[in-house]
Every structure is written in C-alpha cells, then in structure tokens.
Amino acid sequence: MITDDTICALATPPGVSGLAVIRLSGNDAFLIADKCFRGKKALADVASHTIHYGKFYDNDELLDTVTSSVFRAPHSYTGENTVEIGCHGGFVVSDEVTTALLRQGARYADPGEFTRRAFINGKLDLTQVEAVADLIHSVSSRGSHVAARQLIGGFAKTIQILRQSLLSVCALLELELDFSGEDIEFVDKNHLLSMLDEIILTCHQLSDTTASTILRNGFQIGLAGYPNAGKSTLFNSLLNKHRSIVSPIAGTTRDYIQDIITLNGIAITIYDTAGLRNDSKDSIELEGIALTHSLLDSSNLIFVINDLSLGEHYSHSLLNSLQDLYPHKKICLVHNKVDIATSPTSNTTNDVFYVSALEGNGIASIKQYIEYIATSSTERVSDVLLNQRHASLLSDISIYLSTARLSLEKRMSNEFVALDIRHAISKLGEITGEVLNEEILNTIFSQFCIGK
Ligand SMILES: Nc1nc2c(ncn2[C@@H]2O[C@H](COP(=O)(O)OP(=O)(O)OP(=O)(O)O)[C@@H](O)[C@H]2O)c(=O)[nH]1
Ligand SMILES: [Mg+2]
Predict the structure, then answer these.
(1) Ligand 1 atom nearest to CA at 253
(2) Among 3.40.50.720, 3.30.200.20, 3.40.50.300, 3.30.540.10, what is the CATH number of 214-378?
C-alpha cells in the first residue's frame, strides 16, 4: 500500500554533529527531492540503492552540498520511494533542508511514522517494530544484540511456526466435523494433546519478562542499611567516582541517587538510598525511607550494608525484616568498614562480603558477584526482548489452549476444541500484528521519536 502524501523529518538527533540525515518517504519522494537537489542526474532517473553527490537549494538559495541515497519502492525501509539526504550537521542546515522539502510538498512526519509505514507495507511485523524501538532505546550492548536478533525476525518466526501448526490442526478438527456421522478421525487425539502441552509449555517459558526487562532497562541494585553504614561511600566506590555526598552525620542521603555502570554488556543501575531507621520523626527523612522501600521493591538484587565497627550483628534485625518483606529477592550482606572493625573478620562468601568502601578493599569481589548474577539472570534470553504486551497475549494463549486441552480430554465435540484453538491463533496473530488492534498500534508507535 502506498500512501498519498510524502513525509519528511530529520532522522538524526538535532545539534552540532558532522552529518545529519533527513529522510523523505512517499510516492513523490523523487519529484520533491529533485526540486531541491541538483546533481549529475535527476534522482527520478537513477537506479535504486545508489548515492549521489550534488548541491541542495531552497529555490535559488544554496543551502549545502549533500549526498542523496535513493531507494525505490518496495525496496526501502518504509516500502515506499525514499531519499535519505545527508547534509552537514548543526542546528541550521538540517532545519533549512527540511523546510525546503516541506515547501516543495512534503509533510512533516509524525513520531514513528516511517516505521508505521514499514509495518503497513509489510516490511516489518509488530515484533520487529518493537525490536526497532528497543534497539533505539537500548541501554546495554547485550540488550541491543537481542533486539537486533528480534529485528531480523527470530521471534516472529517462532510465533509463525506455532500459528501454522495450530492452523493445520484446526483445519483437520473442522474437517472431521463435516464427517461427524461417519466416524472418521483425521486428528490423532493423543498426538494433539501432546502438541498442545508442548505449545502451552513454550508459552510459559516465553512469557517470563524478568530477563528481558533487565536487558531493556538495566539490572537494578538497591543499597540499603542503617544511617551512616557507608552506603554512599560504597556507592561512590562501585561507580569509581564521587557521586553521592558522604558525611559522618547520620541521615545524609535523603533522596535516592542512581547511576549506571556496565558489566559484561549489561547496564547495572545502582541506587544509593536514605538510611533506614525505625525511630525517625523527621518528615523528609520518612519520605526518603518510603522511597527506599519502593526502590528495593523493584530491585533485582539488594545489598544490606552493615557498619562492622558496631558489630557483626548490628544490622541483623534490618536484614531479617527486609528478607521478610522481599522473600523472593536475592539479599546480600555487606560488612563495611573492615579497616576500623575490632571484631575478627571472616572470608567473603557468596552472600556475605567484607569490605572497606573507604579504602576500596573487597569492592572488586562485589562487582564480580554483581556481574555473575546479572549475567546468569539474562542468560535465557536469546532472540526476543519480551514485553508486557507479548507476555499478556502469551498468557491468554495458554489459557485458551488449556481449555481446548480439557475439552479434548473430556471427548467434547471438535467444535469446542477448535473454537478455543481459533482464539489462541488470533492472539498469536496479535503478537505479530497480523490481527490488528488499532489502540495497541497507537501505543506502540507513540513510543517512537520523530524521524524513525
Ligand atoms: N573507616 C571507614 N569509614 C567509612 C567507611 N565507609 C564509610 N565510612 C564513613 O562513614 C560515614 C558515613 O558514610 P556514608 O557513606 O555517608 O554513610 P551512609 O550509609 O550513606 O549514611 P546516610 O546517607 O546518612 O544514611 C562517613 O564518615 C564515611 O567516611 C569505611 O569503609 N571505613
Ligand atoms: Mg548516604
């Protein structure tokens, strides 16, 4: 499908840069570009996938010397005629080039409109569109690599295979219905049962979003502890920079502070938090404590920092209460200030660390541990960055298939079995966008920026 209007927008971030790229896509892309571009040949006459050097004018005013990359429909990102104009960067030139194209009949693109056209023209399915968004917004190289694999269609293929096998089973079940009087069986029911089991299992395995969320947003670590335990000192030491204020006054950190380090290609977001104490009456500090809890709640790993100079068991009641509050979370104990501790220190083990955040002892082993945990919690993700939309559709699919399975076991009529399988097929189609839901489409494309 080729839409009537031709859209244009800056595809690179605005600002001072070596180059900027302006995209022009639509039926009249060559016609419009040729009104501004003067090279050896008109762009309308050159072959697809070629690049041309020339001068770019707004009427008779020379704006820049540019390169024009030409892509003819349907062999372009959008599936439409496309020209990508590479001009010099900076705030002025790209703006003037865009304005000149608008003056010649192009329309300014909406956010995500290029990708939306790619979807409408069948160049990308919905999982690939989502991969584009993840690729642009990725915060870690591992997440970006998974998104790249999703972009070339890994996930879409898995869904297609599931859909195809369900479609063929459904066709056979419905065919059997036509011959219901004749006691003919086209589908081996035991085989169908095991097939449904397999697909339900695949849906369950696929639908855990934890690992994908870590790759998309980063692995979150919360530093918790009583005031003055040395959380901010440890935070700075892990980041290797002076980021958070350190002082001997209890209650120094009131708001939470976050920063990112990258370990093994995974973004690790560390949160320094307000010290947790039960007896505070200061309303600001109490608000900080409430914030700390909401952060710990969303953390993938929690470190409880204990001031070892006050004793090995000084923070035990805090550790116990956090373990009660977050029973499913990994919580480690960090004994800090070994340099001034009087009690003998044991060796660092898997969950218990002995460090001096001030002097830097033991920090390397904490980092190693973080890297190990973050890496192993994302290992299962291969070629899909699952999001909530996929997860909820996969859960719907499991429910439909489980109902179909039950009907089959109860030897109910094929009609019922087929109906639930059809619902599951439709939900699989929603994942890839074959079954359209306008509202979902709008939500997905609203996350894109202009020019993409
Ligand atoms: N000797 C020694 N002192 C430390 C160490 N870590 C932190 N301190 C000191 O302990 C005091 C408190 O450190 P902070 O890092 O501000 O402690 P905090 O847990 O962030 O404190 P609040 O923000 O008030 O909750 C400061 O005087 C630090 O210099 C350490 O490993 N050894
Ligand atoms: Mg602090």
Answers:
(1) 23
(2) 3.40.50.300
